């Protein structure tokens, strides 16, 4: 049984404590590279869901520039116009900061409500940006993805909670 950690153990623990949320979000961004072929948008945006779950679980961890960098990476991988995820993720963080400053306490249901509102806003903004760029699809096409995202959020939040417990338990 060890009582004290070595220097390399301390560095490894600090690395995981600092970078696991970012690495898990980057991993979720890279899920968009999987060869999943669908005729309409039904697959949730896992990168946004993971980012949202981390933000609602540990708001003190995220700086204001984090969604810009992660959004840029997501834009490059997902094929969005450069700046779309950067802007929408940053706006989501600002809105959640405003909610955090006004709400005294939060529980599981309130987190799901705030996440659902953020998912609805994000999906609508995605559709609207696509519309501005020449897409002729109606918003009703986005409804299956919207419902899947709202229903997938608790599962993603649970996975993020497991990752966070592992991160802090090292």
From TrEMBL:
It holds the Pfam family MreD. The keyword Nucleus does not apply. The keyword Nucleus does not apply. PROSITE patterns: PROKAR_LIPOPROTEIN (PS51257). GO terms for biological process: regulation of cell shape. Keywords: Cell membrane, Cell shape, Membrane, Transmembrane, Transmembrane helix. Its main location: membrane. InterPro entries: Cell_shape_determining_MreD (IPR007227). One of its GO terms (cellular component) is plasma membrane. It is found in: Cell membrane. Belongs to the MreD family. This is Rod shape-determining protein MreD. The lineage of its organism: Bacteria, Pseudomonadati, Pseudomonadota, Alphaproteobacteria, Sphingomonadales.
């Amino acid at each position: 049984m060890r009582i004290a950690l070595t220097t390399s153990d301390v560095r490894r623990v600090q690395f995981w404590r600092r970078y696991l949320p970012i690495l898990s979000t980057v991993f979720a961004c890279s899920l968009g590279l999987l060869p999943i072929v669908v005729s309409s948008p039904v697959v949730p945006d896992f990168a946004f869901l993971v980012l949202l779950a981390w933000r609602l679980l540990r708001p003190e961890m995220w700086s204001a520039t984090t969604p810009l960098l992660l959004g840029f990476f997501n834009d490059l991988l997902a094929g969005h116009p450069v700046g779309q995820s950067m802007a929408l993720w940053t706006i989501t963080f600002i809105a959640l900061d405003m909610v955090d400053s006004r709400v005294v306490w939060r529980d599981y249901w309130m987190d799901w409500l705030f996440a659902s509102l953020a998912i609805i806003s994000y999906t609508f903004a995605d559709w609207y940006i696509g519309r501005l760029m020449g897409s002729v699809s109606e918003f009703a096409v986005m409804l299956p993805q919207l419902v899947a995202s709202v229903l997938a959020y608790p599962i993603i939040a649970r996975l993020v909670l497991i990752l966070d417990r592992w991160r802090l338990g090292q």
